Each structure stands twice: as structure tokens, then as C-alpha cells.
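Box 3.1. Reading complex inputs
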Amino acid sequence: MKYLLNAATIEIFPEKCTGCGMCMEVCPHEVFTLNNKKAVIQDRDSCMECGACASNCAFSAVAVNKGVGCAAALINSMITGGEPSCDCSGGDKKSNCC
Amino acid sequence: MGPKMLELKFRDKLENQIPGQACCNVPLKNTPAWVSGNIVTPIGSVLRVSSVLSATDYWEHFKCRTTSYRNDYTVNPGLYAVGDPGKNSHVLVTANYKYSFDTLRSELEGLDAWILVLDTKGINVWCAAGKGTFGTAELVKRISAVQLDKVVAHRQVIVPQLGAPGVSAFRVKQTAGFKVLYGPVRAKDVPAYINEGYKATREMRRVKFSLSDRLVLTPMEINPAMKKFPLYAALVLVLFGLSPSGIMFKDAFTGGLPFLFLGLVSVFSGALLTPALLPYVPFRSFAVKGWITGLLSVFLSTKFVPLLNQQNIFLLIVTYLFFPQASSYIALQFTGSTTFTGMSGVKRELRIAIPTYLVSCAVSLILLVMYKFTMWGVI
């Protein structure tokens, strides 16, 4: 299953990439592959913008607009004007979802 | 010595642990069944946990899947032991949501390992990593709080792969001196991962979203939707019952019943059918998937339940305008539970979906008012 076409904000800066393969290791959706010892995006539409690659790239060679892909969180943030968060009911223990 | 005595003696042993150790488990007043003893380490006594889940554990997991029980289902953060670990044993990191902790320990039968539980406020690894509570700062803090460097001779911890969104392996190495090895996505692959010399296969690194993965999530889609149902039902009954001479109960029920039924159909369609059939419903957008499923569900319901057939043109239009879009809205909520939807995509959906929902709700309401007026003979 894949989500919307060309929606993911993921980006690679080849000049910074050392080809260490860390992004490939942490990505849960096989978004990356190695090509000439550089990471390249082979499957953008499988990216869910979890941010694992970016936070584990020691060379800042991957950037992604990390966030929760949750409609309830985004609608809440539109209404309250806050940051989208998984805490469906405002960060306390009463949260309904993850 | 009967079991009662044994329990008392054991509890006494637990409560005699050196207090005030930042690292370790707070001595428990009532020893839970999952604690199988304790183990003496250079930093004091550490609870040993069973790798076999009890009937109570399974029952609690069921409640987590279906109710708000999940909101306060935790274990104390800190260090735990499985089997008989020593200086060279693996350290497996997990969240303090007890379901996550249980899932991990239940896969460690026969292994001697340490479990390092991070304080994620009772949230599972992946969701907590998204928020950053399962993250670099907490991992570094917990390693130092339990004095992990005194418990093990090596300098590496195994972090579940799905913790990676919150953890920065190179920063943990820099600040805590521990190397982060990313283990497999699923706890069941941990033994194989360790046996292969910390190598995860492609398969172990990929997240899936099978039918059973999806179905197990649906109770928590249906529950929130059904919480709003009484309000919806009240509105429907008032609207249909309203007459120039007050609320007519007979009209409220005869007119309102089809709409109440279709409301349930929408919840069923959006919260159960769409998630279940997710890969087979055309289009990638969840709003569109939910709408299609909703349209079919409404159509089939009216075919099989004659009560739902609307003779009135206004009500017929509302039936097909409102209920498929209600299903669409509910299906869109499932984006929060999937393993593959990203924020940019959901935002793109919402930009179109929200205005559409608002317009179709407004039009539905206008049509209902017009229906009422024709009933009252006003127009």
C-alpha cells in the first residue's frame, strides 16, 4: 500500500552523502537504495515522513519534513492553532490514540 | 511453606531492596505475576521478569486494544533482567507501555538479556519515537540513571528499529558512549537478529500492514466514532420530530429511524470496512476510499432494508450526500493508525476534504429544512 503520489517531502543532498547506508537501515519502507555509493530515493511514495533517516544521518545528508500523518491530529492543530500532535486530547493521559 | 508464605517472603525480599536507587525499579508493593524474582548486580538488585505471558497479561492486552485501559498501562522505567544476564549480555531497549514491554519479553524465552525501559509516558515505541519521548535525550538519561556502564562490560544497546525516528544513534554514541544497534521492527525477530550477529534481514526491517494488523486497530476507530453517536442521534430525532406544534415523538422515530440506521452504516463503513478492505478499495486517498465504501454501504443497505428507502426527493439526496461523506470522514481518521501515511499527504487530503465536508453538511442541512417546510406545507 502506498499513500498519495509525490506528497512526501524527503530530500537527499548527494554531496553530503557518504553512502554509509544508515538511512537504509532505519527506513521501515525501503525508500532508499544505494547507487554509486550514494543513497538515492527509489520509492518516494512509500515514505511516511517518520524522520528516522534524517535523525540518524550523521552527515545531514537527508532532510524530511517530519510529522504525524494523522488526520485527527492535523484537524486538532487547525482548530487550536497548535503543533499537530498525536495526543488526541491535549497531551494528558486521556489521549485516545497513539 | 505454602504459596502465600512464599509470596510474602518474596515481597519482603523485594521491599528490602536498597531504596533511593535512581536506576532501578521501585520496589513493588504487590508483586505482579510477570516478575519472577530478582538478580543482584553491581548497581543493586534488579527485577527479573518472566518471558511467558500470563492469562492476565493477555486479558489486559485485549483491554488495551478495545478500551481506554491503554491510557494508563505502564511499567516503571529502568533496568530489568530476563534469564540470567551478566556483564556481556545484550541490552534491549523498549518503551514503558506495558504492552510493548510484554511483547518484547515474551520473545526472549531462553535468552539472557537486560531490558532497558525508557520513560515514554506509557506510549508504544513507534508513536513515542514520533513524539521524541522515545528519543536520544531519554535514552542517554536512562543509560546514566541505571549506571549501565557498571552493569555491562560492552558499550552497545539494541534499540528497536521503530525507535529510530526519535533516536539519533550518532548522538547517543557521542554523549553516552554507547553504540546504538538498530534491531528488527518486530520483537519476534529479536532472537534471530541476535543469532545472526546483529543482522536484520530485509524482511525484518520492513513494516507491514496486514489484514490482522488493520483489524486489531478497528475497535479504537469504532469507539471514538460511536462516542459521538448519541449527539448525532439527538440531533436527528429533534430535526425529524420538530413540528410547528412542538416535538412529535412519533415523527421523530418514524422519520429519524432510517437516518439513525444509516449513521451506524457510516460508522461501520468508515471505521471497519474501509480499514479491512484498505488495499482493495481504489484510489490512494483515504477520504476517497471511505467515500466509495460509504456509497456502496449506503446503497446496499437501502437495497436490503426497505425501511431505508426514501420516497422524498430531499431525503433521498441527503441520504447519498451526507452518509458516504460521513464514512469518508471517519475513514480519514484511520490515517492516524496506519503504518504508511505521512503528514504532507494527509495535509493535502484535508485541504480538499474539509471544505467538501463542510459544504455537503451545509447543503444536507438546507435540504432537511426544505423537507421540513414541505411537510409543514410552508412551501
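In summary: The longest strand of chain B covers residues 35-41.
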